[in-house]
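Z., the sequence and structure:
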Amino acid sequence: MDFPTLGDKRERGFLDGQFLIAMPGMEDGNFARAVVYICAHSADGAMGFIINRPQQISFVDVLLHLKMLDEHDAILLPEKTRAFPILSGGPVETGRGFVLHSDDYVGDSSIPISDEISLTATLDVIRAISEDRGPARATMMLGYAGWGPGQLEAEIAGNGWLNCPATEAMIFDHGLEGKYERALASMGVSPAMLSTDSGHA
């Protein structure tokens, strides 16, 4: 699914607002031990963001790259702003930034994902965060995960993913270490219980 179609979606798929949790047998290395928040799912495909994979660059790096501040100003940023997390959201358009955030912030291009969560992919939200006037809860991703028509359903049928309802607390939990296990635990599952064999109980 192409990202720009997200705001135009008219139908909701059964995976909208769900977490996908990669099974141990996941063959695609892009998604090994991944927890993915699905933002849109329809007959046209699906798109979402990996929420447990760190990005090597920092928020300060992003601000410097976008020329929103210089190195002197970067030193003066509060630690909370300097530590704002940047995640690797997926293998598609990895040079493009997206911010999932609480709905207390609305920019010109903000798209409601759920009753509590919105998505903004323009510079206004990055500037707001850098100036401490952004959303109460937010996470920035570079890149996203996308699937064509029927592709994700086939991967689930092939025992590639588990799915469960997403929680805001997990999406904005900045403790990436162990998030995979915590997502499984929310379903009452431990990694030791998972099988790489196809089929469902």
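The first strand starts at residue 18 and ends at 22. The two ends are 30 Å apart (CA to CA).

Let me know what you think.
H.
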